[in-house]
Amino acid sequence: MVFKRNAFRRTKREARQNKRRMLVSGAVACVVLIVAVGVWYGARRPAVTIHAVTVSGGTTVPHEVIEKKVESTLSGSYALLIPRRFSYGFPRDEIVEAINSIPRVHGASVVRASRNELAVTFEEYEPYALWCDSVPTASSTPSCVFVDETGFAYAPAPSLNGESMMRFVVEGRMPESGVNVYDAETVRRYRMLSDAIAERHSHRLRLITETKDGDLILHLNNSTNILMAKDSDIEDVFAHIESVFQTEEFKDVALENLEYIDVRFGNKVYVKERGVAIEPEPALATGEGEASVATGPQDESMSSVLVQEPVEDETAQ
Question: For the whole prediction, is pTM greater than 0.85?
Answer without folding.
Answer: no
